[in-house]
Amino acid sequence: MAQELHGTRPQNTALVIGGGVSGLLAARQLAQAGKKVTLVERESHLGGAVGAHQLAGLVLDSGAESFATRTTAVKDLLTELGLADRIVTPQPRGSWLYLPQGAFPSPSTGVLGIPGSFDDPAFKKILDRSGYRRAKLDMVLPRSAGTHAKTLGDLVRIRMGQQVLDRLVAPVVSGVHAVHPDQLEIATIAPGLLEGLKELGSLAAASARMRAASPAGTQIAGIEGGMNQLSEALVDELLRHRVRIVTGFDTIAVDRDPVTGAWTAIQRQPEYGEKSAMIHGELLVVATDAQTSIRLLGPHLPASSLPPITPGPEVALVSLVLDQPALDSAPRGTGLLVSEAVTTVRAKALTHATAKWDWVAEKAGEGRHLVRLSYGRGKEHDTSPLSELALHDDQLVTLALHDAGQLLGVPISKSQLVAADVVRWPSALPATAPGHRQRVAGFRSALEDLPGATAVGAWIAGTGLAAVTADTQAHIRSFAERKKPTASHKD
User: Fold this and answer.
1) How many CB atoms lie within 10 A of CB 344?
2) Which of 50, 55, 68 has the alpha carbon at shortest distance from 112?
3) Domains of the chain: residue spans and CATH
4) Residue 350: its H or E element
5) How far is residue 337's CA from residue 335's CA, in Å, rounded to a whole number?
6) Which helix H or strand E contains 80, and what residues bound it?
7) What are the helix and strand counts (H, E) for the chain?
8) What's the rounded Cα separation, in Å, for the pair 177 and 227?
9) Residue-wise burial string across 152-180, b where 16 or more C-beta atoms lie within 10 A, e elsewhere
10) How, if at all, do strands 87-88 and 220-223 pair?
11) Which residues contact 116 (CB under 8 A, 6 or more apart)?
């Protein structure tokens, strides 16, 4: 498999390391620009967190099940891939919060759990009297209060108080992003909140304006049949463009030939007796997680440009197919987000997929339901041997059955379990700590001085398919148009 090209430059070629959605998009962009592309992925499957598994005869998403519609990036991509007619929106049943005080419908007037109206009946039920009075101080505080906050937690605490943070914002943020709001940089997750606060003088008003831009039921969409079809369509298009796809090889290092300027990926295939290979390319795109990207590109960059390696939180998704007609009424809407203060449940979120997506309900059939529970709140919570992530798969399924019954308020027993699967995503979500955005910008800037190489991925673009799609396409388009690398560069 090794392709020896010492002393000559592999003309008009590109090497992409990483076969997640970002890598697939990068390979597609380069192939469309006329490059001969080789894509390398260490796993046996492509698509990363946008993948599929089969459960009780159903082909379902094993990771991402939807995409944000705040931009048209994903919709435009799906249109290009011929999937536009399969875009679907979820049932507008709304989601719930699970707190130590019980289960409550989520307020529908704001974003990230931040209320957009203090008159929202759902909001009033969640807070006690003192918490409600403290929250309303947001309306009279100076508009400067909180404008210098770095984290979402600090901003909410200053403007609306601890109770809003604990009972509303923290469950939403930890359920979606697997981190506490105190670890979430505002500039990364929602810069519009600070802009709105400065302009409108109220965090509630800023939250309401952001919500108005994407009303209930319009913030996300999916694909009939599952988001996994996006990955399949991208792979099909790469094959049509004659992209060479190599799976099962782990990239140990990358090196740049000082004579030709070409890049070489040194790889190994542990499943077959540590078989090694070298693959070459005039251009190099690293589309992996942060740790791998820095490990590969770090030796070629100034040490000062390398951001600290902060592993993203591990996440485990437990999918349960249940025969329980009592769930037909969707007792908790499309699902729940769980407060960290809850001690009777270990899951951080539950999605009632058959209540959320019509196509899933139709495939499952009457009285049969799919629920997905998410585990893993961040590294500081999950390193102990007692963590739910340390459980074996069968133990985690047993825990998920208990948690599902508690959260949905419906008796669920093992006898009702038709099928189950556990999918684990190490470092599935990018780090979002304060300063992350600035450090990533410095890393990207340093890469501009490294001829013929760049990096893409969720850890650079931000959380979510919409962010990854927009960033990867724009960045690779610009990268492919740059001047070809020259051998005169001083490494």
Assistant:
1) 11
2) 68
3) 13-48+228-308+432-480 (3.50.50.60), 66-92+221-225+313-425 (3.90.660.20), 109-213 (1.10.3110.10)
4) strand 349-352
5) 7
6) helix 73-80
7) 19, 20
8) 19
9) bbbbbbbbbbebbbbbbbbbbbbbbbbbb
10) antiparallel
11) 107, 109, 110, 204, 205, 207, 208, 209, 211, 212
Return the closest-CA partner of residue 347 out of 321, 381, 384. Answer: 381
Q: Which helix (H) or strand (E) holds 322?
A: strand 315-323
Q: What is the DSSP letter of 167?
A: I
Q: For residue 224, with 0-12 CB atoms within 10 Å meaning exposed, 13-18 middle and 19 or more buried, which class applies?
A: middle
- For tokens 């059939």, what's the residue? 365
- Digit-coded pLDDT (tens) for 155-200: 999 999 999 999 999 999 887 776 789 888 887 778 889 999 999 9
Average pLDDT over residues 238-250: 94
Residue 174 CA, distance from chain mean position = 13
Amino acid at 325: P
- pTM > 0.85: yes or no: yes
Quickly list H helices, 338-418: 353-356, 358-364, 379-382, 393-408
Say how many CA atoms lie within 13 Å of 191 toward its Cβ. 4
Question: What pLDDT shows up at residue 5?
Answer: 40
Nearest to 43 by CA among 63, 67, 66, 14: 63
CA distance 454 to 431: 20
C-alpha distance from residue 118 to each of 123, 132, 203, 205 (Å): 7, 8, 11, 10
Give, as one character, the DSSP assignment of residue 106. Answer: P
Q: What is the pLDDT of residues 3-62, one digit of tens each?
A: 444 445 567 999 999 999 999 999 999 999 999 999 999 998 999 989 999 999 999 999
Residue at 430: amino acid letter? P
The answer to whether the beta carbons of residues 224 and 230 sit under 8 Å apart is no
